[in-house]
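Lecture 7 notes: from sequence to structure.

We start with a single chain of 370 residues. Read the sequence below before looking at the structure.
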Amino acid sequence: MQPAKRVKDISLSGIRKMFELVGADSINLGLGEPDFDTPQHIREAAKKALDEGFTHYTVNKGIIELRESISDKLKRDNHISASPESIIVTAGASEGLQIAFNALVDVGDEVLIPDPGFVSYDASVKLAGGRPVPVKLTDDEEFRMTPEHVLENLTDKTKAVLINSPANPTGSVMKKEDIKGIAEIADDHDIAVISDEIYEKIIYDAKHYSPATYSDNCITINGFSKAYAMTGFRIGYVAADEIITEEMLKVHQYSTACASSISQKAALTALEGPQDSIDVMVAEFRRRRDLIVGRLQRMGMSCVMPKGAFYVFPKVDDPLEFVEEALKRDVITVPGISCGIYGEDHVRLSYATSYEEIELAMDRLDEFYL
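Now the structure, written as tokens:
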């Protein structure tokens, strides 16, 4: 039995491989998951759904109450007009990426993706039959994707450009002129912008902007994993114009059918309940960011200050040696090459673990690096 070539040619995530090395005394700075508990009122909503027997299929797009709430959220927070019928509730933002690419991309189509960028982007484009085109992002420009970058890589085969702000693995946040300029390019060249906004709420020294504010040629992908510490609930959503939404619905319908009914009820409570847990979490992430960046800079590393998400992406002389030496000291880090060819001179560290553990991890790294 031979596997399909499009799958065989894709490697498993280098980040996930690092998780397998975690020992009892290891401090994991590779984990892209908030270490906070899901807020109590959201957990209670999931329990209530169970107790009430809300354990069956929902409509494919998701329960109408949740889609209405998402529609209100997009209008209020992002200045996006998206009717409930143009929204699909998905099994996490990851499924949102998959159905967006599969609905848009034909064999041979090119998709511009940020590099360094989230590991799933390259693989997701390939699984849809497309050709990912890495857009080189640099320390000098704070790893932002700019309109100039897009124009430099645009060809007659370009079908879409994917942007991620705030970004994994760099913590970069795109400026308003970046977002607006790329949206205008999409309109001028009739290409789509796929906007991964999963870290939207985890932002420090900047403001978040959505390309769908400026163009109808956009697919907005978001979810509940990061802002509400709901990674295990696997609940997200996509929003686009109703024509492309109907095409995404076909992929969603035949691959997932519907998102978890229980998770949908929890997500509804997350949107409509108290939001103060986000502020508390972001304040703590900021404190951890300042700690880890300060310690890395004290070690002599060149390190762009992240403006969002919970990653730092310092430049190091020998990333593989750094990762190996850190591992000997029971500190899990991720080589930048796992995030794209242009990340090869960097390492990714996540500060989604406690302040005390970050301090201890930095003490251990001091032994090697100073």
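The domain at 5-38+276-369 is CATH 3.90.1150.10 (Aspartate Aminotransferase, domain 1). Keep this in mind for problem set 3.
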